[in-house]
User: Fold these one by one.
Assistant:
Number 1:
Amino acid sequence: MERLGRPPLLMLVTDRKRSRLPLIEAVGRAVAGGIDLVQVREKDLPAADLFGLVKALKAVVGGRAKLLVNDRADVALAAGADGVHLPEKGLPPAVARQLVGPDRILGRSAHDPAGLEWAGLDYLLVGTVFPSPTHPGLPAAGAGRVGEFAARSPIPVLGIGGITAENCAEVIGAGAAGVAVISAILDSDDPAGAARRLKEALRAAWAAARAKG
């Protein structure tokens, strides 16, 4: 947990094609609003372009948040990112950990807890929790799916999919250590304000969940 920061955690997953503002500007503003983790998920970019984007985002984030690269451990290492996020069908966590070393963050997307490898991972990203405009064809699993993982997981679980300031308390109440969002921030003309509202809602939900024991 030390590498990730203190919960509740707020991750922004990038999608430059739906961001209302230029992506680098949007990320910079969102980090100012309270983002803890930025996952650079631009699967269509060739390695050279992705490397350039990660370097630019690293400069604008400036150590205020942790910067992760989806799937591409080589680009993450070359650009000096803080870690890698593995897709569900990506490298085995143990292999990825050997590549990135002991100090970088390593996370993974997960949809089925059966047979899941935990070793070497710092967090899990579980979804789709609620209906999502980013993935309109995927059925929503509900916050209960996050709870299934959280009950079995020795590492923090984050929920993703259709999460907003209005419904994030349900995800935290199910046992999540935080949430990841795309549209809730990138669809906004005010990424800093959107991130701030989400972080405030998460903190209130986290405090309420801890008070219940």
Number 2:
Amino acid sequence: MPTGVQMRGISLSYPTESGPVAVLENASLTIAPGETLAITGPSGSGKTSLLLLLSGLERPDSGEIWVGSQQLGEMNTDALADWRSEHLGIIFQSFHLLPGLSALGNVSLPLEIAGRADPRERAIAMLEAVGLSHRLQHYPTQLSGGEQQRVAIARALVHQPSLLLGDEPTGNLDQKTGEKVLSLLFDLHKESKSTLVLVTHDERVAERCQHRVKMDGGRLHEL
């Protein structure tokens, strides 16, 4: 089942030599279950920090973040790790594949860590879904950029997360390959019925989302 998100009065700042810099100031955001949301804004506006907050990898200075029935601020490190392995998928711009593992190994590893049944079979099925059944035993260095990103998408979706986050998922791909990967991502999202949140500077990506918000000057602006 997809998961909704509620951010209430979130503030976040980072220390610098000249004093704290606000990333978010009393920001609130509602994401409906199953919704696709684009987060846009200039470089350095805190878009990635917002994803880190939604994933529980960053904690706000104040405010609450609810993902479904879970209040992330009330969970300790171990509980957050368990929650992420069960409910969250993340796709990075730079793939973050493990170079010493094959495509199959990269996709099955999260299932093995979580103790899921039949990790190999589920990973094979997911790689087939992204069109890489012929690349199961290939290592990241043997794959093109588009193929590596498809492995990353398979890894993010293999445990059927209810919330899927993407940080510039087509940013390191050429336009043609990026469009193919983007179409695949939205097709798989539709099948999985997850809630999809994408950080992007690419207008083509933002236009495919149902809603969008812009980050600027510590504020979230609905567009």
